[in-house]
Amino acid sequence: MDQDLQKQLEEINSNLVALKNKKQGVLRSFLMGMFSALGYAAGLALVIVVLGWVLNKMGLLPAFKQQVSDFQAFMDQAKKVMSVGEQQGQNIKSSNNETILTLPDGRQVKIAQ
Predict the structure, then answer these.
(1) Residue environment code for 59-80, b if the CB has 16+ CB neighbours within 10 A, otherwise e
(2) What pairs with residue 94 in β-bridges?
(3) What distances in angstroms separate CA 45 from CA 60, 62, 78, 92, one per listed residue?
(4) pTM
(5) Per-residue confidence at 84, pLDDT binned at 50, 70, 90?
(6) How far apart are the C-alpha atoms of 15 and 8, rounded to whole Å?
(7) Dihedral over Cα of 20, 21, 26, 31: its sign
(8) Rg for the chain (alpha carbons), in Å?
């Protein structure tokens, strides 16, 4: 056999072996990526749990929960007032610079624009 042909065959064989190894490497890389992502998610969950525990021990978490519940109650009241105002269009009077809103209990509120 010609030496040049032998050299080309060896090069082709080494390229085929490299492609085969690369195919196995892709599967391994995919699995390693999946395990890495799982590790990130578990680490993030652990950090959140520890942070919550620390905030609870410091007494900040209950105060934050109270602020959130107060804000939610405030927003619910605002939604009720707005829905009553939309349903009863006659309870809203507008002039040039201010709007007068009549609340369900009969009180009137002036809103400047």
Answers:
(1) eeeeeeeeeeeeeeeeeeeeee
(2) 99
(3) 20, 20, 35, 50
(4) 0.40
(5) low
(6) 10
(7) positive
(8) 35
Cα 33-36-41 angle, rounded to 5 deg: 125
The answer to whether the Cα torsion of 7, 13, 16, 20 is positive or negative is negative
Tokens 């993030």 belong to which residue? 44
- CA-to-CA distance for 48 and 83, rounded, in angstroms? 38
pLDDT in tens, 15-72: 888 877 776 677 778 888 999 999 999 999 999 999 988 888 888 878 888 888 899 9
Identify the H or E element spanning 35: helix 3-58
Stated as kind and residue range, the H or E segment containing 101 is: strand 98-102
Residue 113 contacts residue 99 (beta carbons within 8 Å): yes
* Those residues with Cβ within 8 angstroms of residue 52's Cβ, 6 or more apart along the chain or in another chain: 61
Spatial distance between the Cα atoms of 22 and 8, rounded to a whole number of angstroms: 21
